[in-house]
Structure formats: C-alpha cells, structure tokens
Amino acid sequence: MASDVHFDERSGHVPCKTPWGQWYQTMDEVYVEVELEEGTRAKEVNVEFKSKQLSVVVRGQQFIKGELKEKVVADECIWSLEDRKFLRIVLTKPRASQICWRSLLMNEFETDPYTFDQMEKKLTLERFQKENPGFDFSGAEISGNYHGGGPELP
Description:
alpha+beta, 5-stranded antiparallel beta sheet, 34% strand
C-alpha cells in the first residue's frame, strides 16, 4: 500500500529558483532553501515567522523580507541550518488550505507560468494520493482540468 507520507520523496518536487536558492511546496508546507556562505553558524541566522510575514537575515544580510503570498501557521514553522552552509525553512500551510502558491512573497519570487503549471499538477496528484491511499500516484502524469486543484470529486 502506498503511503502519502513520502509522496514528494517518491515523485520529486517542483522548485522555483531564486537569487538566494529555491522554494517549493507540498499540500501542507512550503519549503524555502537558502544557500549560505560556508561556515555560517546558527547564532548568525535570524528567521522570523508571522502568519503573513517572513524575514531571513544572515550575518546582517537581508535575504528575504516581506508579506507572504498566503497565510501560514507561524507556531508550526521551523528552520534548520545544515552543514553550516544551507538554511532550510519549513512554512506550514493552514489545515484547510490546499492553495498552490504562485509566489513566495506578494509580487516577489514568483514562479514562471510553466513552473506554476507543474506545481499545480504535482499538488493535484498529491491530493489524489491522500484521497486514495491504496494507489501510488508518485509516477503519474496529469492532463486536463487540474487548475485550482483539479476537478471536484464526490
């Protein structure tokens, strides 16, 4: 039986490249990956979460600051510093939200139309996986009406 827990690990993710790294999303979370100077220490990293705001400052340099495209559950958002050169931020989407974000911040770090199309397809397949746990949609392709999360199912 397929598990939805590792759907993105089996099917990959659709990244949106940025000057500082990339961001991508699942139905439940938005991942922000920032490439840092090697040797960065956790005490040099300042990440602030609010329901509609994100601020990332490392060694006094502002990487990200602004209003998020959609709301997040700030108390459930986390960040980690990996190998002293890679910052991973996990923004938790509200439980009722299955919105595919077009950009990370309002009018900033926006996906191009092709990438957004691929993100919507991926989230639609992830939704199908959650609704049908006995099937494995990780290698599936989707065409047709998937805009806005696909067709309404009974």
